Structure to design on (916 residues):
């Protein structure tokens, strides 16, 4: 099945160019693009391609040119720091045929930003308030790198739009004064994720949404609907839903995304189907796979567990050996988790299992730390210690060392204690997996147990 | 300063094309490319560009063509699953003008792989042993997707090189029979990270290294040297080392990589300088910034802490509130961490701080959970509970809610207890940061305290 990704369908189509040697030598993982892609889709803009290039003049110039040959909107990240290795601003000046001038508003903003850090206010920082004359400057509320909007066909300088109090410009009336004309423009954003996210959220996305709204007849809705599936191999799932899949219209696309033991089944439409039509296909899919559905939406397992615990007004604690705190971290990653998450004991050493969680020395000696007996006692021990409704415990061999013929690397015991019973299950995640991968699988399976346990309470 | 990235310098230059809608709609973060980039650099191959494209025939074909216009080696990831949304294999057949045929060795391998999972062996899985006739098939020891090597200018089918026991082919003599001719070729890899990593490590990198070795006169060494710096703003650091930086030859490039409060200062050379020459510049840099150096290498803080603890034969535990288990997870992420890491208490709820860590109710009532008094008691409490030499504790307001005028979001207290004393420090990571970012900064600062503490013991 081919999707309809022909250019004429997508007047609102963007590309991202990430600029920085650190991405290409593997020193930094690009987390920005996925975040931006999700937000662009929500705003009705398809992200067509992501291109990562070196901090190199020719490379950046060529990438911009190629991107504009495919789409109208180009977003770049990176290369906007005050040090010599960052050349993005100067290269942009060259591409858009403009020069740097001092911007008093940016200067005031940076001086204010660093007023308690005189160390950070120096002649290199001062280069940050030199901005391309033809660019519209959007405020970077939390950093010194100005965010620049270039219209390929205009060289008229536009005013700095942040008001004196550094508040974000988000209202329609203010935004409409930006005066960026279709069809083509480029937004240069900082590469520091938290600066990029704030600028995107407060400045760039409102501006893009406004554009999408203004061009509604051309811009199409992008619809993605996802179902979380667990407990069935990808190929078996595909055979199970084959007739349903074959009946899908060509403009609704099905994707299988297996990761860490979960399959995300996603239906997408890029402008040809309404949300209602996509939903009707989801509705006819659900009965076919009801035994395997964890959630009828694209949600993290930890958010799902949190929501279910809140619904039941119940609390949880964890006792972790091989997962080493990652299960705790997943459970408290949500804001508001203090309503249901009480705490954890990471019992890495056996002495902690014994003295803090109350696993008997005999149990540890006779069955070992990675055993049903030990992991059950860990779950019950932390549940009693922290006075919670639920508790979950993990003990396993994450490797690469520590495996035995009986208990090879990848063996993980998980136990869950509820107000009425304690259950345990052994998993084999495979000796060929890396330490991190085995740990992630264990966290996923622990959360899946919790979801099932909590759903059965409904 | 411009780097010398002219094509003639780099006969061994590669690009990555990542294939999959999930990357462009932001459902999945591409962690593969960074991992591959690092390994390619180690093998003396520069990664010139990363391009992420849709599961779309025209898009994939165009991306391959464009990549071959810039480099000789193209690696693709993704789109090799058995379901209909994965089209990479068929598109490759089109690009390289070949057709699919059954490969008996691949079939045997897959049947063996799934012998304990009859569920996963079905007619869709059977499509996985259909392989492009002109491709060399490398074994995928842990998955069903065959790894395919295409030589742009050859259409002669080469033999499946895995032996009967599915062992990796790594010796020079075996590899040399692969008969892939320069100049241009493409390797199609699975997108599942752990399958990709095993295939790269066992199959693709040995093959590429052999090529690099055979073409040594043309292929240049790539040298990267990194120093970890902390406690100085990026711009001030740049001014401090300005004279030194200006004296660098044009073919040695300096980069500043700030992240989570650490600056990675990296010197790179792509073939013009020897490792010794790069090292001599590092040697002259070190005295200039000695007050700020955490490490004279590109190492994670948790690995550095682990090494220092091992050297001193000392143990550690953590007590965490706002970091919620992430500090524990960092400390036990290293294989062998059981030698020094004993365990942790995640004391999210105040009752856990009181009853498990022994923080007095009075202290919590009078000063609050986020206070010097509480965090000191947390550190001392977990150190006593787990009988360790060191302990570190965190308590803060990660947000987005919970801030007060006195203690705004971003306020984090960190305490470290040693055999001789307990110290504490308050950090302000800024209310504008996200919950996750504040947590990461707290983990970083806690690890920095530990490094400094452990180094002062030497």
């Amino acid at each position: 099945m081919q999707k309809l990704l022909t250019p004429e369908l997508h007047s609102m189509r963007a590309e991202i160019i990430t600029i920085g040697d650190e991405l290409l030598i593997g020193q930094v993982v690009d987390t920005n693009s996925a975040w931006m892609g999700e937000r662009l889709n929500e705003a009705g803009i398809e992200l067509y391609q992501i291109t990562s290039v070196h901090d190199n003049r020719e490379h950046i110039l060529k990438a911009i040119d190629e991107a504009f040959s495919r789409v109208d909107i180009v977003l770049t990240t990176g290369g906007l720091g005050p040090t010599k290795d960052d050349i993005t601003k100067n290269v942009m000046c060259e591409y858009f045929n403009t020069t740097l001038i001092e911007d008093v508003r940016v200067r005031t903003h940076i001086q204010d930003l660093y007023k308690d850090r005189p160390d950070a206010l120096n002649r290199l920082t001062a280069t940050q308030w030199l901005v391309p004359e033809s660019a519209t400057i959007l405020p970077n509320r939390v950093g010194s790198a100005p965010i620049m909007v270039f219209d390929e066909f205009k060289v008229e300088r536009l005013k700095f739009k942040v008001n004196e109090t550094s508040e974000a410009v988000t209202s329609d009336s203010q935004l409409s004064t930006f005066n960026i004309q279709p069809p083509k423009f480029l937004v240069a954003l900082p590469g520091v994720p938290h600066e990029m996210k704030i600028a995107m959220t407060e400045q760039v996305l409102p501006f893009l949404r406004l554009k999408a709204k203004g061009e509604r007849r051309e811009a199409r809705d992008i619809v993605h609907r996802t179902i979380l599936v667990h407990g069935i191999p990808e190929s078996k799932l595909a055979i199970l839903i084959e007739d349903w899949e074959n009946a899908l219209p060509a403009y609704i696309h099905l994707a299988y995304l297996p990761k860490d033991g979960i399959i995300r089944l996603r239906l997408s439409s890029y402008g040809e189907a309404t949300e209602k039509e996509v939903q009707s296909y989801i509705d006819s899919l659900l009965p076919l796979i009801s035994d395997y559905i964890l959630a009828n939406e694209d949600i993290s397992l930890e958010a799902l567990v949190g929501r279910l615990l809140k619904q039941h007004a119940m609390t949880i604690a964890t006792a972790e050996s091989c997962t080493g705190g990652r299960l705790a971290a997943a459970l408290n990653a949500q804001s508001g988790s203090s309503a249901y998450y009480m705490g954890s004991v990471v019992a890495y050493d056996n002495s902690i299992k014994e003295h803090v969680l109350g696993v008997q020395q005999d149990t540890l000696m006779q069955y070992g730390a990675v055993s049903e007996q030990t992991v059950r006692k860990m779950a019950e021990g932390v549940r009693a210690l922290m006075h919670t409704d639920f508790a979950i415990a993990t003990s396993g061999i994450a490797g690469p060392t520590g495996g035995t013929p009986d208990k090879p690397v990848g063996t993980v015991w998980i136990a869950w204690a509820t107000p009425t019973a304690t259950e345990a299950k052994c998993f084999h995640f495979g000796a060929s997996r890396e330490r991190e991968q085995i740990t992630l699988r264990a966290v996923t399976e622990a959360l899946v147990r919790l979801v099932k346990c909590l759903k059965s309470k409904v």
Notes: Confidence is low (pLDDT under 50) at residues 1-10, 153-181 of chain B. Chain B has 17 helices and 17 strands.
